[in-house]
Amino acid sequence: MENSFDIAVVGGGPAGSMSALNACRDGVSVCLIERKTEFGIPVRCGEGIGKKGLMRYIEPRQEWIKATVKRSVMVSPSGIKVQLANVEESFILDREKMDADLVKMAEKAGTRIFSGTTVLSVKQNTDKTYTMVTTDVSITAKIVIIADGVESKIARCLGWNTKLDLKDLETSAFARVVSPFIDKESCVFYTGSAVAPGGYAWVFPRGNGEANVGLAISGDHSNPGFARKLLDKFIEKEFPAARVYNYHCGGVPVGKWLKPLSNDGVMIVGDAARQVNALSGGGISFSLFAGKLAGSVASKALNNGNVNYAALDEYERTWKKKFGKQQERSYKLKEFLAKNGSDAFLNRIAQSLSKENPEKINYLRVFLKTFAKHPVLLYKAFLLFR
Asked: Residue 348 sits in which domain range?
């Protein structure tokens, strides 16, 4: 059985569903292909996002928001706690619910959904369309939007160099934890070589004594099972006798975004495109923006009758102007910390900040202190967090 569409989106995460949703709004035929039968499971994410970063691209439903957090705490390797009370209000999301709802919204707008369907191969035809052979059907499309995650096979098949250096890939372990010791009011971040070498651990409260607890370690510090062992050790220390469930692991890209972001009749978005803050590993807002933009540019190109690189390049140009330079700045700062962020260095920063008024401390203040002796990086930090 063969199915023909104007646009085929591969991957049902936020970047993919936003691509499909926004393309459908412009009257083109769209399908979304997802290898899993359930959307949003498992969630390889701490589920935290700034309120503005979410509401700028979509109006959130109340049931997507598990908790609202108005402060953060950073814990140094030696245990010095620095409270940040002057931070943007953030949401802790229910990504399982949000991701599933975004797909339903795309379907309601006209997207045809192929769930539990794996793309086995993809090729460009002589008429410049693309044909994908899947486990169930053959699908042909004028434009393919690749949104199948960090391990994207489709991007590799279509000519992108998807290889990542170990230092640009974080190995992450995640769990849900129920404990009376969870700080219900704060997102808490832990640093140090004993906790998460080359990365950090986090505790994001979800309400009712539950939190997303996880950690990410740099790929060049990792080996099979190491992240999970460190997470178990961390939870046992910080939340003794806690109820722990929903363990899972995965890779998070923290490199530079892929170039180009489009080619003749094909675009790449989200984790597949490495559209992630390289310093924190956060990528929800980037994915929402990129998906929305890619869907709109793709449908516009179709309506104008041309889907070549020149027609689709508006996507990359807009991404670069809006977030591309910001992401590259985060990568430079990440590289500095990878080289210079020893436990002693992080403890000195924390010791200095602990003497300041928490009501005046925000993320910009933390990083201005961190890069105070490095003028170029100081300026990049200012541009990133202003």
From this structure: 334-385
